[in-house]
Write a structure and sequence with these properties.
- Chain A has helices spanning about 5-10, 15-35, 90-95; strands spanning about 40-45, 50-55, 60-65, 70-75, 80-85, 105, 110-115.
- Chain A has about 130 residues and is an alpha+beta fold.
- Chain A has 2 domains: about 5-35; about 40-115, Sandwich (mini-chromosome maintenance (MCM) complex, domain 2), CATH 2.60.320.
- In chain A, the strands form 2 sheets. A 4-stranded antiparallel sheet of chain A has the order 2-1-7-6. A 3-stranded antiparallel sheet of chain A has the order 3-4-5.
- The longest helix of chain A has 22 residues, at about 15-35.
- Chain A is rod-shaped.
- The mean pLDDT of chain A is about 85.
- Chain B has a single domain, classed as Arp2/3 complex 21 kDa subunit ARPC3 (Orthogonal Bundle).
- Chain B has helices at about 10-30, 45-55, 60-75, 85-100, 110-135, 145-174.
- The longest helix of chain B is centred in the last third of the chain and has 29 residues, at about 145-174.
- The model of chain B has no long low-confidence stretch (mean pLDDT about 90).
- The chains are: A alpha+beta (about 130), B mainly alpha (about 170).
- The interface of A and B includes residues 10, 15, 23, 26 and 33 of A.
Amino acid sequence: MRPSATWRGLLRPGDYIVLAASIALCIAAGFGLWRGGTPDGLIIRAGGEIFAETDLSRARRIAVPGPLGTTLIEIQPGRARVAADPGPRQYCVRQGWLSRAGAVAICAPNQVSLILTGRGSDFDSLGY
Amino acid sequence: MTHSVIELTPTDTDRRIARHAAAAIALTVAEAAIPLPLPGLKPGLANIITLVVLARWGWREAAWVSLLRVFAASLLLGQFLAPGFFLSLGGALASLAVLAGAMRLPSRWFGPVSHSLFAAFAHIGAQLLIARLWLTPHDGVFYLAPILGGAAVVFGLVNGFAAAALLREKAHAG
């Protein structure tokens, strides 16, 4: 008898079904539990007050006034960034695109912050 | 003063349970020496014995073997009443409960491999639940579920094959 035939002889028809269902369950669990982290909205704060609270469904730009000037926030589907800021060190601009729930960009000199929100957030907040 | 002698006469069943439990304990102790990447991720080779006993001698004996194994192996490994012991006990009880149902499935269709997979999933299910409720009261433990589930499929399949092969050998021999 060939080895493969021997191995297959140990399986009964229902075993294949149980095996397939087990693998499907694992894959489903993987998709269900590890999907977290995709953002579904963003909150912009200026001077500690909520300036805007929107979703990430369509591309647009939002100008936020602050004590130093205007911070420009750019939104694209699923991500957002600080496109321009009058602050001296440009930390929040150089962070680039934020694409995970909980990610934060803070333009401290101009008192503007941007945070992505989402249900399955991996982190309470993310700073760089 | 009278000497009272208590005599225990082990039946054939007792001897058989002891023999199988000893084999299961040996496998558990041996597998404790295998380094594995995640704590709690184990092949569970002792379950091969449980499956063979279940198929040949029934659920009661399988339960004896499985629970004796949990207690004795934890004593040997210094894990008795440590968290690992409760995870192990919970897993064993859950898989015995599931096996009680699984063994009633038509045997023409479902063999040891099915039983093994069911038991493996019951094992990790109970362990995740215990971990969530008691050891790590945070939903974060469920992030491990897909990894543990994958391990349950692999090890469940391997153990099921081993049990099926042993049972076939026995059937040919006797």
